[in-house]
Amino acid sequence: MNRIRVGLAGLGTVGSGFVKLLHQSRHTIRQRTGINIELVRVVELDKRRLKGLPLDQAQWSANLDDILKAADVDIVVELIGGTGVSREFILKAMKSRKHVVTANKALLAEHFSEIFSAADRNGVNIGFEASVAGGIPIIKILQESFLTNRIKKIYGILNGTTNYILTKMSLDNMDFASALKEAQKKGFAEADPTLDIDGLDAAHKALILCNLAFQVDVNFKDVMVSGIRNFDVSDIHYARELGYVVKLLAVSRLVKDGQIVTYVEPSLIPFKHLLASVNYEYNAIYIDGEAVGESVFYGKGAGSMPTANSVLSDVIDLARHIVAGTKVWHYRNLRKPDSTVNKNIMNEYYLRFMTADKPGVLGRIASILGKYGISISSCVQKDLDARVTAVVMTTHFCRKQDLESAVAYIRKNVRDVKAPIVVLNIR
Amino acid sequence: MNRIRVGLAGLGTVGSGFVKLLHQSRHTIRQRTGINIELVRVVELDKRRLKGLPLDQAQWSANLDDILKAADVDIVVELIGGTGVSREFILKAMKSRKHVVTANKALLAEHFSEIFSAADRNGVNIGFEASVAGGIPIIKILQESFLTNRIKKIYGILNGTTNYILTKMSLDNMDFASALKEAQKKGFAEADPTLDIDGLDAAHKALILCNLAFQVDVNFKDVMVSGIRNFDVSDIHYARELGYVVKLLAVSRLVKDGQIVTYVEPSLIPFKHLLASVNYEYNAIYIDGEAVGESVFYGKGAGSMPTANSVLSDVIDLARHIVAGTKVWHYRNLRKPDSTVNKNIMNEYYLRFMTADKPGVLGRIASILGKYGISISSCVQKDLDARVTAVVMTTHFCRKQDLESAVAYIRKNVRDVKAPIVVLNIR
Predict the structure, then answer these.
(1) How far off is chain B from A311, nearest CA to CA, in Å?
(2) Residues of B in contact with A274 (CB under 8 A)
(3) Beta-carbon pairs below 8 A across chains A and B
């Protein structure tokens, strides 16, 4: 029987789930892989977190060096989070030839090539299934099952907090602030929800998926991000009238000539699209690939046990590789795609203008859009009170840059249009 | 650079897709795995099928022995189908220590333990991702990603032909015969559609998923199967009125005490369930697991390139294992579950009775159901003409055996109820 020894850093939600799941699965793992996976070191500052877990006091320490210096640790599981201490820790672990499993999307997204180069240089494997979409095995699908399925686009609902908020706003007619408060009460949003609602968490995951799907090395700063802070519930209603739901989508698309665009934006999805039914805290990823066609993978995007299952499946994979002496995959010399391509992408858009209730305003807007080559596919006009009218439109496919120019022109020159003008992508 | 050599048997739809996909992916595979996968032998009776494929005449033969006897073949890809020649071929290939990749669900389902025991005995690996749900990587998900996610139930839409027919019946109000004809015209149904519409194809796949999900060795004859031959479109309409769609579901459930039930039956799914939106030729699999919770995997269930992608991903996995000298997984000593458990399962049901339009019939039916402990959750009654009334009901959870007894009693004793009585599962 082969023995593989694990050192765990961090006993938070996912860490404690990992300890429990490993404990209850050891027999299954032995039976199916012939490997005995042993948790030999646990580092956690707050000793009280050991309580109730199947752990021996002797395994515990408060010092990360105890894992790094331990000669008997084969795999390091990093569940500390953040990009400071965890980065140092992972780089040092790799330098001492330890394999690494991490759920840390921020670290991977912001230091993508540094982390993967270090793994390559030191001849160690890195598992990061838990970094994107919790319990959905999307990393394995991209790296293994879809290795020969050339991907054209990949987009997903990758943040449970914002999806919970948007679902509440849509189904229960709540405004943003109330939906956020409810998400916090139910434990789906942090006390400081900034990373989630401003789209950064989704952007971290989007970058990882983009780089894997297209075998590129996009810089995190090239991901365009807009979140849902103070998203207006009226746009959810107008969208529904036009046959769409609003979701915070993380999108990566292959544009012609191998150029890639990556962005996170609240977007309209047609009712019939499978992602339109992905509600509350759930995540889902849509892939359009050359060989396989359209695929969707749906599941829990966070939580103790779903994420722990992904961490543990990585540990098992790495253990198998250690026993065999093989490397998971070769990830080097990735292309840095052109980041200026974003303005040339084509899309359909949703537009909302708040205008004075005067004759001719709609005509003025429509003819300016027309001059910029933008054609309207549907239009709804609603008088909100005696003075204000909402003009809501969807466009046919047009160049993003043309749309931005037209909107800027309208903002500057059509006095009867009030700020702000809302522009949303349509999938 | 490592070399792995492949012998392919069968140049049908999937086989020719495999040849193309391997040809166009060789660079990617080399770059990512460091392995050169070479197609060295192709066996196909119909030589004309080589036309247009990137194949050398010298690689071709019409004799399966040419693959079996070739010392330079590491992996055999079996895409012949059926359970006769292909079974002999796979067993012989394993005996001569060749690893096997197959898309043959009938063979695996009907000779499950024979095939896996032979692989184990000969120390070779077997890949069968393509045997279930075409382009959806469900086998890898079950064997690797969800290894430690104890599964409670798994059910899926696993047959594209019947799903296409049911979708057409539902959305376009077609009867069964017309929908089947259309499916045949569009290439989604064979000239002889028996295997599909009688549910056998789905049952083959259900058995494979069941055995993997629960680590058991269920016999194929213990899978209860009912298909959709001459399914009455009126049940699709009544179901819709009650908030459901009808899908041919392949279900495996863990009953208490480790007992398993497996069946294929047309079943009602609530509108809101993700599987309810899986239309036309698409497949999807729903899994409820202890660690991960609810997951759904959606994609193309058949077709040349989606299935070829699964075959090729198996070949790549096996190639890596050959280079490393490792075995994919240990699959032995599987438990044979009790097959008599089926009658004790609890479910909700949809019932349709055609009755004479007389007072008191509904009351009679309801009180008989009540005597058997079956409580009604909703009921619709429709007069179809002056003489015939359709009484449609859904029940709360009840024992399957009680329901069957009640229905048998009604059939025998209530003269105003005409045959047949329709009983469908609700998910």
Answers:
(1) 10
(2) 274, 277-278, 298
(3) 170
CA–CA dist B281, B133 (Å, integer):
11
The pLDDT mean for chain A works out to: 94
Q: What mean pLDDT comes out for the span B238-260?
A: 92
pLDDT of residue A343: 66
A148 interaction partners in chain B (CB closer than 8 Å): 21-22, 25, 28-29, 309, 312-313, 316
DSSP β-ladder status, A224-225 and A151-157: unpaired
Q: Is the dihedral of CA B242, B245, B250, B252 positive or negative?
A: negative
Q: Give the whole-angstrom CA distance, residue B396 versus residue B61.
A: 60
pLDDT digits (tens, 9 = 90+) for A177-214: 999 999 999 999 999 999 999 999 999 999 999 999 99
Q: State which amino acid sits at residue A179.
A: A
The 10 Å CB-count burial string (b at 16+, else e) for A374-413 is beeeeeeeeeeeeeebbbbbbbeebbbebbebbbeebeee
B324·A329 Cβ contact <8 A = no
- B336 pLDDT more than 90: no
Q: Is position A329 within any domain?
A: no
Contacts of B294 in chain A (CB under 8 A): 299-300
Claim to verify: residue B218 and residue B287 sit in the same structural domain: yes
User: What is d(CA B398, CA A248) in angstroms, rounded to the nearest whole number?
Assistant: 41
- pLDDT tens-digit readout, A219-258: 999 999 999 998 999 999 999 999 999 999 999 999 877 7
- pLDDT value at residue A332: 67
Contact B293 A310 (CB under 8 A): no
How confident is the model at residue B237, as a pLDDT? Answer: 96
pLDDT at B337: 78
Can you tell me the distance from the alpha carbon of A20 to that of A14, in angstroms, rounded to the nearest whole number? 10
- In chain A, what residues touch B28 (CB-CB under 8 Å)? 147-148
Q: Is the pLDDT of residue A341 over 90?
A: no
CB-facing half-sphere around the CA of A263: CA atoms within 13 A:
18
Residue A274 distance to chain B (closest CA, Å) = 7
Q: Is the pLDDT of residue B300 over 70?
A: yes
Of A148, A289, A295, the CB nearest to B312: A148
Judgement on whether residues B155 and B117 belong to the same structural domain of the protein: no
From B306's Cα to the closest Cα of chain A, the distance in A is 4
d(CA B377, CA B395): 5
* A205 catalytic per annotation: yes
Question: Tens digits of per-residue pLDDT, A282-303?
Answer: 999 999 999 999 999 999 999 9
Residues B147 and B294 in one domain: yes
Domain of B74 in residue numbering reads as 2-134+304-324
Q: How far is residue B169 from each of residues B175, B178, B182, B394, measured CA to CA in Å?
A: 6, 9, 11, 21
**How close A202 comes to chain B (CA, Å)?**
20
Tell me if B33 and A330 make a contact (CB, 8 A cut-off): yes
Write down the pLDDT at residue B186: 92
Asked, for residue B404, whether it belongs to a domain, the answer is: yes
Q: H/E element holding B294?
A: strand B293-300
For residues A365 and A254, membership in a common domain is answered with no
Using the beta-carbon criterion (under 8 Å), do B292 and A309 form an inter-chain contact? yes
* Distance, CA of A109 to CA of A217 (rounded, Å): 10
Choice among A205, A256, A358, A418 that is catalytic:
A205
Residue B336 lies in a domain: no
Catalytic residue among B153, B205, B256, B343: B205
| B309/A33 CB distance under 8 A | no
Instruction: Report percent pLDDT > 70 for chain A.
Output: 97
Mean pLDDT, chain B, as a whole number?
94
Backbone CA torsion sign across A310, A313, A319, A322: negative
First to last CA, chain B: 51
Q: Are residues B151 and B266 in the same domain?
A: yes
Instruction: Say what the pLDDT of residue A342 is.
Output: 66
What CATH number is associated with residue A209? 3.30.360.10
